[in-house]
Specification:
Elements lengths: L3 E15 L5 E16 L4 E5 L6 H8 L7 E6 L2 E2 L4 H7 E4 L12 H11 L4 H14 L15 H12 L6 E5 L7 H16 L3 E6 L2 H4 L5 E6 L2 E6 L1 H8 L3 E7 L7 E6 L2 H14 L4 E7 L3 H9 L2
Parallel strand pairs: 3-8, 3-9, 6-7, 7-8
Antiparallel strand pairs: 1-2, 1-4, 4-5, 9-10, 11-12, 11-13
Helix pairs in contact: 3-4, 5-6
This protein binds adenosine-5'-diphosphate and magnesium ion (MG).
Length: about 300
């Protein structure tokens, strides 16, 4: 049985915007237009898409916070609407932006508090809190108040909290957004650890480059639908995402720039440098341009 199974999820939001004193304008957002996906045990699935694509809405439905208009979803076989309580017992959730921590309490006290909410005894909650603080590398800051935590530390504490009841399925909404490269890396390492433990992880992001290293499979979501699915490599190929390497050769009076397109810039750079040095030449300037995922999204979303 799949850890996560979603079939044709639809969700529409209707909101009213005041225009003038009395008149209101009705706005309809078709957030999900038939999202289907599944996540296997021990798999990290990345739901990728631009802002407003429907990522958070999907996560909220899968974690029982929102009810779909139609379609269904099951977590370990439990229906997210009809068996919401069972689902809540087996999922861990990190939403962005994260709320609910007590700023004056320490990281340790916060985790113990949430452990108690999940019904752990005080002793068990404390043991679990210590274990999780070690896991997310915050044991050194266990007794510092939450308000003194940096963004990266807060992100790690959120993951610790999501694991307090040892859930086999974990949802992470934009786990690395706004984090510096070092913190992002430690979050990615944590996610790899969850996978090694056999958990199923579904994360969302708007940056393929950020998550390609941790995701086994990626689904590109746009206009409320999963438009493309595959391994990160597969997705990059199908989107035609290529790095562009630009190189200027020293002493080349015409200022000629060599341009090479590649999906593997590290290997390609080595090859080019060997070739140039082999010919007794030197590089005067070099630039590697990252491909724009935005452009690729636009191409996919507009068919
Ligand atoms: N509570 C809400 N009320 C009205 N519209 C919403 C609400 N939540 C989301 N939407 C709309 O649904 C669409 C999808 O939003 P969301 O799932 O948050 O996208 P993402 O997480 O990919 O940025 C957007 O157009 C958004 O404006
Ligand atoms: Mg979102």
């Amino acid at each position: 049985m799949n850890a996560v199974e979603a079939v044709e999820l639809r969700k529409r939001f209707i909101s009213y915007e005041r225009i003038g004193l009395i008149r209101r304008r009705k706005t309809i957002a078709n957030a999900l237009n038939g999202v289907s996906l599944n996540v296997k045990w021990g798999e990290v699935y990345g739901l990728l898409g631009p802002n407003g694509a429907g990522k958070t809405t999907t996560v909220k439905i899968l974690s029982t916070l929102l009810i779909p208009d139609s379609g269904f979803a099951r977590i370990n076989g439990f229906d997210v609407v009809k068996e919401a309580k069972k689902v809540r017992g087996i999922i861990g959730l990190v939403l962005y932006p994260d709320k609910g921590f007590y700023s004056r309490l320490s990281g340790f006290e916060n985790l113990v508090y949430f452990g108690r909410l999940y019904g752990l005894s005080r002793g068990k909650a404390e043991e679990r809190a210590r274990e999780l603080l070690r896991l997310v590398n915050l044991d050194w800051a266990a007794n510092r108040p939450y308000e003194e935590y940096s963004l990266g530390m807060r992100a790690r504490l959120s993951i610790a909290r999501a694991l307090i009841h040892d859930p086999p399925v974990v949802f992470l909404d934009e786990p690395t957004i706004g984090l510096d490269p070092v913190s992002s890396r430690s979050i990615r390492d944590l996610i790899k650890g969850l996978k090694r433990e056999g958990r199923a992880v579904l994360l969302t992001s708007h940056n393929l480059w950020e998550v390609e290293e941790v995701c086994d499979r990626v689904g590109i979501i746009g206009s409320g639908k999963v438009l493309m699915e595959g391994s990160p490599r597969d997705i990059k190929d199908r989107l035609g995402l290529r790095y562009v390497i630009e190189i200027e050769i020293e002493g080349d009076s015409k200022g000629k720039v060599i341009r090479v397109e590649t999906t593997d810039p590290v290997a390609e750079l080595k090859r080019i440098m060997n070739e140039i040095e082999g010919n007794g030449l030197r590089i005067s300037r070099m630039r590697v341009n990252e491909p724009s995922l935005e452009e690729a999204y636009i191409r996919v979303v507009s068919g």
